[in-house]
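Incident log, entry 3
Record: NAD(P)H-dependent oxidoreductase (200 residues)
Problem: checksum mismatch between cached and fresh output.
Input:
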Amino acid sequence: MALTALALNCTLKPSADPSSSELMARQYLDALAEHDVAGSLVRVVDHDVRPGVETDMGDGDEWPAIREKVLAADIVVVVTPTWVGQMSSVANRVLERLNAESAETRDDGNPILYGKVALVGVVGNEDGAHKITADLFQALDDTGPTIPAQGGTYWNGEAMHTTDYNDLDEAPEATIETLRTASANAVHLARVLSREPYPA
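Fresh output:
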């Protein structure tokens, strides 16, 4: 069956600036494309996503358009940079807005994001990737998507250095192999859930 993916790049940098998070997000989309998954990418910071925990915060809020893309996707990828050992404020905003979906239900009574699969990626030239991944997994799971086995990858630069992921001549093999495994597992899980949905 045909599957689609949406990658949410949670960098703090607007589109004019290079983004390590965008590089990893595109690497995810490339890996998913190898399994015939059509993907698209949103750089969230380019949009006026208002604070709040509703599906639409009104007054020029641009989250509803992004939300429609989330709802249309089978696989949702969230990639964030690391700042002071934490996920970006943009990633936190995405999680806050997704929190509204736990109250939105389908015809079978389940949360509207049930049946979707979530992947995560973390980049940064400082430590924090394991904690950020755990926080993302928990928050995404709370809103309804399912996390596949080994459903995330990361890259941390050497401590106290300023090299970024997109400064590397090539991505480390371990990071890419884990990304490819996560992508393959996500596709497998999405296909299983499409055939055998969660019970009502």
